[in-house]
Amino acid sequence: MKFKYRYIMLFVLLMVVTFLITGCVPGDGHNTKDNPAGFFWGGWHGWIAPLSLIIELFDGNIRVYEMYNKGWWYDLGFYMAIISGFGGISLFRKKRKRRL
């Protein structure tokens, strides 16, 4: 019984976290021409880019990249998050030595 309860709670927690994360996806109407996305929004959008890509398949208004942004600063935050979240991991991975 404990085993089943643990999986149910894990599933509920995963769903809550997913809904919280997807509340701030690019193209959700939060950012406008008068209130463009800046550096920190770029970082956030870079971290949730894979999730945004999946959501974009079902909702045409959601994008991976916010079109109303402050330019260079948004781009910097976005690319820093993309590189550190996905590409940066491989820089610190140990390589296994091949045995002959």
Question: Summed up, what is this model?
Answer:
This protein has 100 residues and is mostly helical.
Radius of gyration: 18 Å
How far do the termini sit from each other? 49 Å
User: What is the structural class?
Assistant: mainly alpha
Order of helices and strands: HHHH
3D shape: flat
Share of residues in strands: under 5%
* Unreliable sequence segments: none
Largest sheet features: none
Average pLDDT, rounded to a whole number, is: 82
- The tally of strands reads 0
Approximate helicity band: 55-70%
Output the number of helix runs. Answer: 4
Tell me what the structure shows.
This protein has about 100 residues and is mostly helical. The chain contains 4 helices and no strands. The longest helix has 20 residues, at about 1-20.
How do the helices and strands line up, and which of them pair or pack?
Blueprint: H1 2-21, H2 39-47, H3 49-58, H4 72-91
Helix pairs in contact: 2-4
List keywords for this structure.
100 residues, mainly alpha, flat
